[in-house]
Amino acid sequence: MLTHKLFFSLLLSISLSSAAVILVDDFSDGKTLGTKNGGSFVSGGWDSGKNGQIFLPFGKAISEGGGQLWFTNVDWPKQVPGDKQEIWGGLGPKGHFAVRFGYSNYKTGFKLLSSPSGKPATEPRKENRCVPDYQWGAKSLVHTMKASIKSNKLTVFIDGKSIISHDWGSDTYNLDKIVVGYMKYAGAPGLLWVRGVLWEGTEPSNLDEIKEGASTTILNIHKGRIQSFDNQAIRMARKNSNSLQIVTPYGWFDALGKK
């Protein structure tokens, strides 16, 4: 039987040397590690409907890092027939962005809106229409959209290709969560969100291979706090002024294995 002391020693040796992956969330398993408001889990993923949201937390405001979302069952213009449908984005104390679709305005492309204010539709802000003739292909294809931030610059990608950047220069730009689904305007009913990965710092090279619950996945290290999703057994780890403590379904333990 694995002792508490050995268990925590293994955890620390793995987690402290791991990549800066913050969260891996597979929606296709019928649940989320984030906070869900509305929408429904269906076979193959999560459908936001018009007003559903999932908030995926970074655990703190990050100024370098990003998030990537996988989705399928794209059926444009049927799912986004209107002029304004914001299907995902990001929020932070000094940052906001929204990816806005709507066939009548943007055809098969989208508009990127962002602001360093942390609030939608607040000046200063930038907005650009992008790729109005994007070819999404068959509904069975799985696509990715990614947002990365570094040095107050936000860049959005589709299927691995850089599409648009908003450079905020000397204005602080940060994010503390990714929003999947509805933001200010309706989402895209019928679109299936498959998974999401969040990271801090340099983007991991193997986003497609990182699995939910991997022992190398930590939520964050910030002001001594370590958070982890390790096979759903270790929910969070933290470091106080005296010792490192880890919470499990059986209670808190410190690094020496004392409960």
How does this structure look, described?
The chain has 259 residues and is mainly β. The chain has 2 helices and 20 strands. It has helices spanning 4-15, 103-106, and strands spanning 21-26, 35-37, 40-42, 45-47, 53-62, 65-72, 85-92, 95-101, 110-115, 126-130, 143-150, 153-158, 161-167, 175-181, 192-200, 218-222, 225-228, 236-239, 244-248, 251-254. A hairpin with a 2-residue loop joins strand 7 (85-92) and strand 8. It starts with a helix and ends in a 5-residue tail after the last strand. The relative contact order is 0.24. Residues 1-19 and 214-259 have low confidence and may be disordered.
Whole-Å distance between the termini? 17 Å
Structural class call reads mainly beta
Elements, N to C (H/E)? HEEEEEEEEHEEEEEEEEEEEE
Rg over CA atoms, rounded to whole Å, is: 19 Å
Largest sheet, in brief, is: 7 strands, antiparallel
- Are there runs of 5+ residues with pLDDT below 50, and where? 1-19, 214-259
Count of DSSP strands: 20
Shape: globular
- The proportion of residues forming helix, as a percent range, comes to under 10%
In terms of quaternary structure, what is this?
A: single chain
Please sum up the structure shown:
This protein has two helices and 20 strands. The protein is mainly beta.
Question: Keywords, please?
Answer:
globular; seven-stranded antiparallel beta sheet; 20 strands; mainly beta; 259 residues; disordered C terminus
